[in-house]
Amino acid sequence: MELRAVRPTAGSRPGALRIVLIVVALVFLGLFLVLPLAVVLSSALSKGWEAYWEAISEPDAVAAILLTLGTAAIAVPLNLVFGVIAAWAIAKFDFAGKNVLITLIDLPFSVSPVVSGLVYVLVFGLQGWFGSWLAEHDLKIIFAVPGIVLATVFVTFPFVARELIPLMQAQGTEEEEAAIVLGANFFQVLWRVTLPNVKWWILYGVILCNARAVGEFGAVSVVSGHIRGLTNTVPLHVETLYNEYQTAAAFAVASLLTLLAVATLVVKGWVERHQARGAHP
Question: What pTM was estimated for this model as a whole?
Answer without folding.
Answer: 0.82
